[in-house]
Amino acid sequence: MPLRKNSFKVIISIILGIAAAALLFSGCAQTVVQKNGRLQVIGTQLCNERGEPVQLKGMSFMDIAWFGDYANPECFKWLRDDWGCTVIRAALYTVGDGRFRASDEEDDMIKAVQAAIDTGLYVIIDWHILYDGNPMEYKAEAISFFKDMAALYKDTPNVLYEICNEPNGDEVTWSGVIKPYAEEVITEIRKIDQYNVILVGTPHWSQFVDVPAADPLDFDNIMYVNHFYTGTHGSDVRNRIDNALQAGLPVFISEWGATEAEQNTGTWVFPVETFTWLDFINERGLSWANWSITIRKEPSAALKHIAASEGGWDLGDLTESGLLVRSLIRGQDTSLVLFADSFETENYSAGRWDMQDATINHDEASEGYAAALLKKQSTLTKTFSTKALKNIRLQFTYKTEGFSAGDYIDIEWFDGNNWQQLKKLEASSGWSEHTLSLPQQADNNARFQLRFVAGFSGQAASASIDEVELIMDRLN
User: Fold this and answer.
1) Average pLDDT over residues 175-186
2) Whose CA is closest to 93, among 201, 148, 199, 166?
3) With contact defined as beta carbons under 8 Å apart, do 114 and 121 qualify?
4) What residues have CB less than 8 Å from 216, skipping those under 6 apart?
5) What is residue 66's predicted lDDT score, i.e. its pLDDT?
6) Distance, CA of 104 to CA of 89 (rounded, Å)
7) Residue 26 above 60 pLDDT?
8) Catalytic-role residue among 255, 260, 320, 467
9) Cβ neighbours, 10 Å, residue 464
10) Residue 22 contacts by C-beta under 8 Å, 6 or more apart in sequence?
């Protein structure tokens, strides 16, 4: 089982940081930037300084001003060493709280970029147009900002510039608005920084990446941005990417999510669609950054609110999106932990449990400081689609108190039509750890559910459940 105690988190984070720094400065290990140097675009491919193809994979930060505590060297080291990230996208929202705010927060960008430099990661400086829609609205401010960034980082190979995140609006066309904006901003950047790669947003929230093929920009080291969310966007957007590549446009996936684009829905991750998308972009060697490192309560957030700002996260600190994307960055197809809950949030909503008469045990836990507590007639149910997944395993710990003869905990799973018993647990002597394999019928099951049922005869009986994980392999 992964360690859960907060004290261990800090120790592990410190040890990893010291070890990474020692390797970095001893010359025993090279960072991705040391290996590849200044990036360049050759044809449709992002390449290193030697002209060899490069595929960057990493995470976007939701907002380095609002959630700036996470944009620090310790967090970046954790993303580099534990997740395997090679790029960080630092999003600076241009508009928020009903006002233009980017000029007030330039220091937050500098802090984030320096953290990436310190940890040997590539970093995307993202001028995060969203609510403003039309990049021309704050063009003068964008030029001033990127002139400052270019002056600071013209000799720094870590840096890529993203000059307009998601242009949007019916009137915000490529040839009429986005291209003229890009030409002015890029011209000013190139007066100072002639080489670092520049990413350019495309129409309709950067989903129409093929449109610029009819009227491309005339600059070197330029890539065109595509964004997608796997629960919303499908083959039509993939076809546009292929059309762009076939027309000779280099494409960079600077933002994608394993959820729906609308973040206020009840559905969280879409594993089937996510695997389809990642196979597609990996086959084409496209670089990408997932949305996002944040504790904000939305499906695409990678972190639960208990996740420490310095990294060192246990699997229970990650959301379903964070767990899935971490596995994808690490290149895992087997032993994917796609759900984990150590109940350290001290509620059930973070794990999306359907609970009946279950509470939180604050007095004792297998690890950490909280566990699920079942009393008489309590149930704890988790819904999780296993589509495109196989070899489902359930891992957990449990402890009982006050059990009488005949008391038990039933672990059941739903096959799509009926509940099936997986295991009946009797009284334990202290915390007991279990790993249970589900039958093959649980594989590839869109209606899969799991539940713990308290079969107690009296009010004095209770059972604590902790460190719950669903582990599975990808169905090829």
Assistant:
1) 98
2) 166
3) no
4) 248, 249
5) 87
6) 19
7) no
8) 255
9) 23
10) none
Neighbours of 410 (CB within 10 A): 16
Identity of the amino acid at 433 = E
- The residue ranges of DSSP E strands in 357-459, in sequence order, are 359-361, 371-374, 379-383, 389-401, 408-414, 419-425, 432-437, 449-455
10 Å CB burial of residue 195 (0-12, 13-18, 19+) is middle
CATH class of 353-474: mainly beta
Catalytic residue among 74, 166, 344, 469: 166
In eight-state DSSP terms, residue 192 is: H
The single-letter code of the amino acid at 421 is Q
Distance CA 382, CA 247 (A): 46
**Is 255 an annotated catalytic residue?**
yes
Query: 208, 167 in Cβ contact below 8 A?
Result: no
3 state SS of 79: helix
CATH architecture type of domain 30-332? Alpha-Beta Barrel (3.20)
Closest by CA to 45, choosing from 55, 32, 35, 57, is 55
Lowest mean pLDDT among 6-10, 138-142, 316-320, 425-429: 6-10
For the beta carbon of residue 41, count every other beta carbon within 10 angstroms: 17
pLDDT tens, 372-426?
999 999 999 999 999 999 999 999 999 999 999 999 999 999 999 999 999 999 9
**pTM of this structure:** 0.93
Q: Is the pLDDT of residue 1 over 50?
A: no
Q: Name the residue type at position 51.
A: G
The ranges assigned to domains in the chain are 30-332, 353-474
